[in-house]
Each structure stands twice: as structure tokens, then as C-alpha cells.
Amino acid sequence: MPADTIALVLRRVGRATQNSISRLGFAARFFAMVLYHSPAALKRLQLTLREVYFSGVLSLVIIMVSGMFVGMVLGLQGYDTLNRYGAGDSLGIFVGLSLVRELGPVVAALLFASRAGSAITAEIGLMKTTEQIAAMEMMAVDPLARVIAPRFWGGIVSMPLLAALFSVMGVFGAYIVGVRLIGVDNGTFWGNMQGGIDFWPDVTNGIIKSIVFGIAISLIAVFEGYDAKPTAEGVSTATTRTVVGASLAVLALDFVLTVFMFRGAT
Amino acid sequence: MNKATIDLWVGIFVVVGIGAIVFLALKVGNLTSLQATPTYRLEAAFDNIGGLKIRAPVKAAGVVVGRVDVVRFDPKTYQAVVGMRIDQGVQFSKDTIASILTSGLLGEVYIGLDSGGDTAMLADNGRIAKTQSAVVLEKLIGQFLFDKAAQGGTK
User: Fold this and answer.
1) Residues of A with CB below 8 A from B29's CB?
2) Measured between CB atoms, which of A60, A165, A193 is closest to B28?
3) Model's pTM, two decimal places?
């Protein structure tokens, strides 16, 4: 009896491993196929522009409002802590570095995954459920070039721009709280920020991070949509998987990228 | 949603986004003051560089005139050789003294250059002969305690 149970458990573990490996292989091949079909999709630029509109422009409000609030909170909390050590004047560099290096790319990516990634997955999943993708194949229209690649590239274009806007709004929010409300000197605030932050490596590394996050989120979103079970439940599961998977991927990638980028820098 | 409207909004989005990157580059980081000026190299050997790091500022009379770009250990003389890039427009005499200083008690470590009276100037890849090492606080405190103890002994 116990031997049977052990065999059963082992068989389940084996099946789960095999499934995840074949899914990983499918995802890798899917990624290669998307890249292969990208030139054809980018030739019809209008399709990609449409996706930049849906995932980028329509995310502007949430990204900018969140950025502003994150900056204002950083201004308040940062000043409170820094002032205990008599370093309240360093608020500018504290806020600038946190936003440009980490919070800008990461929080914007998390918001982007929930706001745009989930929408992309749901849209593609529903297209699959209503057999629009099968219909396209019947009409000899490649869904990878017509549906998947434009959404993929739209996300990659939007992400760095959104992250930069998030950082700028954050700095602006911190300026309002720090300089206007608390009364840190205006010149000290900007001077410290400019003195401590360099375009290379700080700002460029933030941009590289946001591009990498854009690729990861877009790929996960289109893949989950394409791989969704063609049922109502399947689409809902796929959407959840996109948000959870993309968020975890962003956080894990952020750690790895930070280790490579900033270990030697300081 | 027609094509022209989408184009317009995407255009606005991209322009504002690139504007944000430019803002980060110019206003948050200081791209302008770094890239524009051509530089030349100087070297100086120190017995101890303390906490000096690559990209630390080089200051003359408190004004940043360059940055440290290499720090290496010379195994023959057991000294640290610091290479720095100085703005082209700023020249220093041959008897310049380079010292490693700290701004404030806990501030950043930088190199201070004090020009001497020599009329000959340091050329590209020149070496600053007179250097002053970093003041190591622990050693200073140790010395102070030792002196105190010695004084106490003679009483």
C-alpha cells in the first residue's frame, strides 16, 4: 500500500516536471517564432502603433498618478529618516537614486503588467476562445504576425517611456513635498541630485532595466494568451498567470540585473 | 477610434516619454557637465588612498576639475597609483601637491590638487610627484591614545 502511494506521488511529480519542461520549450519556440514574424508585422507599423496606444497611452494616467504619489511618500519618509542624522539636505539624491535605479522601472513594470499585460492576455485568450485565431489561419493570415507580434512590440516600446515618466513624476512629487511643503532649499535639492546621479550608469541602467522588463512582460502576456485554454475559465486562469508570472519575473530579473549593474559601481 | 487619433496620441506619448528621458539625463543626472569637455590624464602615487573610489571627483580649490578613472596597486613600490582625467582647460604646475581628502567627517572621499609656483606645467600622462595620503581616522585615534598613555607614564 505505501509503495503504491509513493509511486503515485512520484508519478505526479514526474508528470508535472514533464509538463513544465514542455511548456518552457513551447514558450522558447514561441518567442523565436514571434521574433521571426516581427519584421513582417513591423512593416505594417499601424498595427504596432495601435498597440502602443492601447498598452502605453491608456496606461499613462495610472503610471503618472502612481509615480507622483510614490515620489511624495518618498519625500516625506526620506526626509523624516534623513533628518534624524542631520542629512535632510540629501533628500534630492535619495529620491532621485531610488526612483531612477529601482522604483521607476520596477513599480512602473508591475503596474504595466497588471494594467496592460492582463488586457493583452485576456484579448488574445478571448480571440482564441471565439475561434478568431483559427479563422485567421483559415484565411491564410498568420496570427503571429497579425495579432501577437504587434502586441509584443507595442509593450516593448511603451515600457521604457512609461518608466521614465514614472521617475519624472516621482521626482516632481518629491520636489513638491520636499521643497514646497517641508522647505528643503530648492538649489540644494537639485544640486545634490545632479551631483550624485550620473547619466551613465544610473539613468542608462534604469532604461536598460525597463526595456528588459518590457520584453519579459510582453512575452509572458502574449504567450499566456496564446496558450490559454479556449474556455471562459481558461482565459481567466491565463490572465491571473500573466499578472503573477510577469510580476515575479520583473522582481527576479530586477535582482539579477541589479547584481550585474551596480555591484561594481559603488 | 480612427487612425489619425491613435497616431496623434501615440505621437504625444512618445514625445512626452522621450522628453522624460531627456529630463532624467539633464536635470536629474548631469549629462552636460560630463561629456562635453575633452580631458587629459594625470597620475599620482599614494601610500594609502583610504576610501577613494573610481569616479571620485578631483577638486582644485573646491571646484570639480576632473574624475578618478583608475586605481591600481603597484607591486614594486607597494603604493596605490591613481589615474585621473582632468578637464583640458585646466593646467597644473609640476610641483602640484595631490592630497586625498574627505568632505566633512563622513562625506565622500576626493582628491584635492594644490598648484605650486613652478612655471612648467604637467603634460598629458604626467605624474604628480608630491602626494599626501589619506588620513586614516583609526590610526589618528590610536596615535592620540598612545600619546596620552605615554604622557601618563612620565608623570
Assistant:
1) 100, 194, 197-199, 202-203
2) A193
3) 0.77
CB A102: neighbour CB atoms within 10 A?
15
Judgement on whether residues B58 and B106 belong to the same structural domain of the protein = yes
Q: How far apart are CA A166 and CA A98, in angstroms?
A: 12
Take residue A125 and report the three cell numbers written for it. Answer: 485568450
Mean pLDDT, 10 residues at a time, over chain B (155 residues)?
Answer: 85 91 81 67 88 83 86 91 88 89 77 87 86 82 88 66
Are B29 and A198 a contacting pair at CB < 8 A? yes
Q: Is B154 domain-assigned?
A: no
Quote the number of domains for chain A.
1
Q: State the residue range of the domain holding A42.
A: 2-262
Tell whether omega for the bond before A201 is within 30 degrees of 0, i.e. cis: yes
Looking at residue A107, its amino acid is V
